[in-house]
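Supplementary notes for students who missed Thursday's class. We covered one full example, reproduced here. Read the sequence, then the structure, then the short commentary at the end.
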Amino acid sequence: MALPSDKEYLLFRIKGGIGLEGSLSKIDETSIKAAFQEALNELMPKINSKAFTLTSTDGTFYMWPKIHASTKPSELNENAPCKSILKYVTTEASDLHQQGSKEQLPKVFLKIVNLQIQLEMTRPQIIGRVVIEHRNSRMHYKLTLPVDVLVFADPQDHWGALQDHIMDAVITQLTSMSKCIQQYTKGKSVPIPQAFHFILPNKTTLTTVIYPAGISDETLEPQRKELHVELGLASIPYLRRPMAYNFPGEEVVSDYLLNVHEHLPPLDPEVFKIYLPSGIYEFHHCMQENENDEGWGSLYHCLQVIISWFKYQGYTAKPVPTLKELQEMLSKMNKNFAKVVEAEEWLKAEHLQATLRHFRITNSITEMKSKAEEPRELVPHFRHHGTPVVIWNKVIFSKPKAYVLLGMAEDEKQDTRKVLTLSTMYTGPDEIPKIIDEAVAWRGKEFWDEMELFSLILPQRPMGV
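Structure (token representation):
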């Protein structure tokens, strides 16, 4: 369901490892598929019964959604608003904001209620492996289904109806996990199905997709194509596993600061239409990791920022190269590049484009040969491609400068724009207050006056899914 966005909403997240096990007489693909389907068929009545129990993460609150019962029966009756549960559970705060849409969507603020499944066949939610072992003349098998179900709710929704939604959602996910096992079991290899949650264009809820663990994204492309048709998505990636939504406490782990622009005071959404890259990037800059590259290394770090964004969106499986690895990469391409690297000169457009091509990142270049205002293609670029952009000045006898452009803010009434700049020339510590003061900012006409003549590298978002 699509939710209005003028207040907070509740997101019930139901997690737990539900065990499937049984025996089979033969270990072949047909027998294995049949055995797991039989096990799931036997499991469903147990799930759809009063044995299915949910508990708060601290174990102080219990509920039995099938029979609409809980340890707080008077406060949580059938017609009580579901926000009443907030008195008895701890919550996490988050928000959903679909960026890069043609229409600017407001944020949906969430209070996340985490609930754990308690069932006689539940186990810790660990992605392990399928076990098949001999027991006398038969083989015994077992695996754990890592259930991860989301149910959105208006705080005023009736508690009784919410419990029905929870039961339906859990059964739906188990059915999807069964289909995943049937589809991707090959020979004696049985995959563990996993749930991934995605923010999609013009939607204010998360969309859950079940993928098999241990299967490459290339192998999963046919499934993604089917989902794109079903969901009416354009032919650009939205459903790759690295693009999944990160809940509080599950943020991406990196040795570098991520999305530093998010710490800036927000612009007024009543005044500006704001276009930002959706997804994650790392902040790389000069003098990082004890590299003495002040004065020449900025464009290398622009490349790292761009490559990191493509990596986190699932467009490339290659790791973000270090400064030395980028230098080695360029030196091996041709002798002229090697001379530039050895002399520690500023990179040029040909070096940036060659490096991005190595990572299969297509791009276009714009060169301003006379002093002008900001290029008009930036707003369409951030609206349609949503990738970070590299800019550097080309004024002879002027101090060279380079930035990553992270977005545009457009005031259509005044016909004015601001550009979000990230300075990879920054040489300070990786501390947010210092970075906000010195390295990242929304800037207006003064930025283009400062740059004078410049070049832009505009990476293109890949087509395909």
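Commentary. The mean pLDDT is 89. Residues 52 and 119 are 6 Å apart (CA to CA). If anything here is unclear, bring it to office hours.
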